[in-house]
């Protein structure tokens, strides 16, 4: 019990609470934010394996709650979720063993994991931005706004699950960011509530398998897992409650910047050759963040112009991210109430 009351435990609790708020505000998956935050805090000696295991354990708790809500409301496509699970669970379980097959040296293992997480964060940032662009094109094309029962494509869906499973098993990142965009590409007409519910249902066994596998190999540091759960759950609830009052478009743009900075910083921390070895470059990370903060809105504006829209205004980033813009009131309400990556509330105020 004394381990829960230490300064380190309080910092983990605070990190969990803050990341939980962001998850509640935006629906962004916690792994992409929590894992790098804990690594930079240096908890558990800054060892990536220890942090990934604790993060997956905490995620298994709050994702189960979200999935239960959606299952009760009947929103998931269980056949689609079943094919995703068939691909993701074995790969999530095998992922940590695959890493340990190639190296058992603790220092080398830590470097491999940090490199993997760094690249996974960059992939998450890219897929997050790509998802917005795909939805922008769909809105402009007048594409389908919802299909409650699309024909499931077993093999592609299974492969999507396998990709998400290996990413989550190794890095704890990808259960929402990567799988969501892949499902959106495979099933562009799937309604928002079905997409969110399906992702949450498949995420529970996926995260559980990844957590069990990592615990079996690395053990579980309860001194990290308990305060992480205690902090993240109320943070997520609070974020969900205040979400309608917060300008979502700014937050979502910021997430792309933060994910990119975190990914580059972890690659730097792991000594990736293009960034230099045995030395961190905080100035480089800061410059990348500043450049992105300036360029992202400009690039997005030109993409909007290319689709015949003004550079700024409706549909806002948050409206596109909810998959409910132009859809039914039911889908929009579901997206506002949903829990999980890409299911955050909309903000109908145009953002310049």
UniProtKB/TrEMBL annotation:
It is found in: Cell membrane; Membrane. Keywords: Cell membrane, Membrane, Transmembrane, Transmembrane helix. Its main location: membrane. It is a multi-pass membrane protein. It comes from the Bacteria. Belongs to the 4-toluene sulfonate uptake permease (TSUP) (TC 2.A.102) family. PANTHER family: MEMBRANE TRANSPORTER PROTEIN MJ0441-RELATED (PTHR43701), MEMBRANE TRANSPORTER PROTEIN YJNA-RELATED (PTHR43701:SF2). This is Probable membrane transporter protein. It comes from Nocardioides kribbensis.
